[in-house]
Design a protein that fits this description.
Layout (H helix, E strand, L loop, with lengths): L4 E9 L1 E6 L3 E3 L2 E3 L2 E8 L2 E4 L2 E3 L1 E6 L6 E9 L7 E8 L1 E7 L2 E9 H12 L6 H27 L7 E4 L2 E4 L11 E2 L16 H9 L3 E5 L2 E2 L4 E2 L40 H9 L11 H7 L12 E7 H12 L6 E9 L5 E8 L3 E5 L1 H7 L10 E5 L10 E7 L7 E2 H9 L4 H8 L4 E4 L1
Parallel strand pairs: 1-15, 14-22, 18-25
Antiparallel strand pairs: 1-12, 2-5, 2-9, 3-4, 3-8, 5-6, 6-7, 8-11, 9-10, 11-12, 13-14, 16-17, 16-26, 19-24, 20-21, 21-22, 23-24
Length: 439
């Protein structure tokens, strides 16, 4: 396997400030160590006293030379959103995009993976968990690169949203990125360069699994993952485009529950499931295990397997207006129309005094019902006492899981590793029918 170079979109701003910790090359000359900045000027990039359409600052050694970007935003639109200075190996490319300067890191695939594993979870996680995640992170990335190449060849535009009368269906995927392979945030995979402290074990695991990917019928698998499936995994096409992936199917995060039961597409069974706390790999409160998956800002979230959120009428109606741009008036009902295999709502009817609409898919629902992202769309709605006009005073959402629930459940995988499962068994559990191969 010839190691490819990956382009990662890090941040966008009117001005990009950065530091070079080694000598770099730019436009035929040498840039010494030090502080630099680039500013958007008349639609171009002002850098070193000149204007450019794009700037490429090249490392002499892509594996060892590094730079620091100031005030990079992490956790965009999530409850832990914040800015921090981040350091990256490899080259730095600056382009103009959407009336901003976008900073792109060009980095080797395996160096990228060392960072992803250390950013997505603790670098001190168990070896088998790290091995499993290195394989799926490599697979997912290469699958997205291949997918992007296919989309570029197609004549028709690829759609990720549809509106039909009073129904709005949207999903978000990495096709949003046209000038780089992936972004550095949760929209793709967390990549924080060499900012997050790695360990010799992470580097060793990347070497041990070098070139290993998940395959299904001669294609690299689109190996999705989320923090906590809530006890049951979701099917790919219920979250993203309607293209079945036989290895991304609904199944219990357990060795003891068959694929057929429970049927969480059934409303009554979904309610019972979500309101209970069934046994599953990811049903754990073991701090020692959770610490492997939850970084410092993730640990600000204490509830993930089962959670509760309550909104007053005023809070909910204002929130939905702010997040959707649609004035529903007072909210009368939040009614699940269709659920997926994990009990996550695919289509939700919002009934207001001014509007009635059906929205989907799961991330559109989560974005509409939270200032950032609701933990998941696997929830049951309870309404508080109505006034004389039949308007509920409050809504309580009882939910399950954290994230879309497709593919590997990070907390479940951590528990499996802790119980002695090897990484091949972990991957076989979360991606049934797929095989580990070297590419």
């Amino acid at each position: 396997m010839t190691e490819p170079q990956i382009s990662v979109g890090i941040m966008s701003a009117p001005e990009i400030k950065f530091s070079l910790f080694d000598t770099y090359n730019f436009d035929g000359s040498v840039l010494n160590k030090g502080e630099y900045s680039a500013t958007l000027t008349d639609g171009r990039i002002g850098f070193n006293g000149k204007l450019y359409n794009q700037v490429l600052i090249e490392a002499n050694d892509i594996h060892t030379n590094y730079f620091e970007l100031k005030d990079a935003v992490i956790g965009i639109n999530f409850h832990w959103e914040r800015k921090e200075d981040q350091q990256f190996q490899g080259h730095l490319k600056l382009i103009v995009e959407n009336d901003m300067i976008t900073a792109i890191n060009l980095v080797s695939l395996e160096d990228y993976l060392v960072s992803v594993i250390s950013s997505e979870m603790s670098a001190t996680s168990s070896e088998e968990l790290l091995k499993a995640h290195s394989v799926i992170s490599r697979s997912w990335l290469l699958a997205q690169v291949e997918k992007n190449k296919l989309l570029e060849k197609k004549d028709k535009n690829y759609q990720t949203s549809f509106e039909n009368g009073n129904e709005i269906v949207r999903w978000w995927d990495r096709e949003d990125h046209t000038h780089f392979d992936v972004c550095a945030d949760d929209h793709c995979q967390r990549y924080q360069g060499i900012t997050k402290q790695s360990t010799p074990l992470v580097s060793d695991v990347i070497k041990q699994t070098y070139g290993q990917v998940m395959m299904y019928k001669n294609s690299i698998c689109d190996t999705r993952f989320s923090k906590c499936c809530g006890g049951f995994m979701e099917t790919f096409e219920n979250v993203w485009e309607p293209t079945p992936h036989p290895y991304l199917v609904g199944k219990a995060d357990s060795k003891n529950i068959s694929l057929e039961k429970p049927d969480l597409t059934d409303e009554d069974e979904a309610i019972d499931w979500i309101k209970s706390s069934p046994a599953a790999f990811c049903n754990t409160k073991e701090a020692r295990v959770l610490k492997q998956v939850l970084n410092d800002y993730d640990q600000e979230t204490s509830d993930f397997y089962r959670w509760t959120v309550t909104y007053t009428q005023e809070e909910l109606s204002a929130l939905i207006l702010k997040r959707s741009g649609i004035d529903y008036g007072d909210i009368l009902e939040l009614t699940p129309i269709e659920r997926g295999t994990s009990g996550r709502i695919k289509r939700l009817k919002i009934v207001g005094t001014e509007q009635v609409k059906i929205i989907g898919k799961e991330l559109e629902i989560r974005r509409t019902l939270s200032e950032s992202h609701l933990y998941s769309s696997a929830f049951v709605v309870e309404t508080a006492e109505e006034n004389d006009e039949g308007i509920p005073s409050a809504f309580t959402l009882h939910g399950a899981g954290w994230g879309h629930g497709v593919g590997l459940c990070q907390i479940g995988a951590a528990v499996m590793a802790d119980k002695g499962y090897e990484y091949e068994d972990i991957l076989g559990h979360y991606f049934p029918g797929a095989t580990i191969e070297n590419r």
